[in-house]
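User: Please run a holo structure prediction.
Assistant: Happy to. Please share the sequence and the ligand.
User: Here you go; the ligand is flavin mononucleotide.
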Amino acid sequence: MTVIENSKAVKNLPEPIIQGQPMTALAPMQDVTGLEFMKVISEYGSPDYFFTEYFRVHVSSNLEKHILNSITQNQTGRPIFAQLIGESLPDLERTVNELIKYPIAGIDLNMGCPAPKVYKKNVGGGLLRDVKKIDSILELIRKSTAKLFTVKMRIGFDTTDNFADILNLINKHKIDLLSLHGRTVKEMYRSEVHYKKIKQAVETINCPVLANGNITSASKAKWVVENTGSAGVMVGRSAIRNPWIFRQIREKYSGKKMYQPKLIDVRNYIDKLYKATWQERFTEQGHINRLKKFLNFIGQSVDSEGKFLHQMRRAQSKKEFFDICDDHLIANKRSELYFANEPFEKIIARPNHEKPNDDLSYSIVS
Ligand SMILES: Cc1cc2nc3c(=O)[nH]c(=O)nc-3n(C[C@H](O)[C@H](O)[C@H](O)COP(=O)(O)O)c2cc1C
């Protein structure tokens, strides 16, 4: 068994599933990591920690009911951190005071969202331009709660010039855990990930760091932990593609044979997602379009030519959609083929044909 030697790893945080292994977390993803998706993930193998989608904090904000449900009805058996996005000190204080009445592991501050609509309001990734503001927000939240206080951020806005100063603030305000996406805000989602910057954070700050950005498989998780010294990994898009990833990471570190899903398992996962994401207000086509957003990621590991993705995106009805799934995942003994561990090269989770919702600060089709 591989044991992490980073002594910063366990202090204060809720017990991980397996002591001594790198910690894992499901990355918060707006419009994805709600109650239902977290439950689906927990059925395939939970991470150590979950994070909610972000609660918006501003002068007239209320705790959004659907996000709150992921806390009050959490069925994963694992701790969940409540993420906030905002910059107004009185409203952040009010929101923290409301949230700490609920069964959360702690409060998480979003300093990474790259959507222009968001960063232009100086929240999310926009905060990374203003070190003084970060200082006052971290001070306020730290004072407002005795619960754990964690931060999720990127390595800078358009440059990494502020990075060292921000890391000093993470120490100054005794943040309990830093999830660090190794890209700047301007780099969005597709550039290379600057793991050296994650290493720099690990070497500078006193709390554990979860490395984030393109952790695509258990092997990649191990590589990143070894090369950054991070206390663990936070996985986003690859957990949508491969919900077995947290279980596989644990198996890899335990020296056990890693579970290898077959295409039939993927077909069953799609059924599970279909049921989990169903809402009465959806039309059949609306529901299928929503499902396609998840399948955009799943399809990256189905076939190396992207045929499944190409056809799936064009399905016009539920029947057509599931026929395409059956063709690629079950027919002609394909059910017995293994689902690729990594996304196939050059197969990109690109947009559906329907117009992306402009209001979403994160686009699932990034
Ligand atoms: C659809 C989508 C929604 C996201 N929503 C959030 C969010 O609400 N809060 C947040 O901190 N990050 C959010 N992110 C960023 C992810 O948490 C993560 O940092 C990023 O996807 C990089 O990790 P990955 O390469 O494992 O996906 C979102 C990303 C995606 C793709």
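Residues 1-5, 351-366 have pLDDT under 50 and may be disordered.
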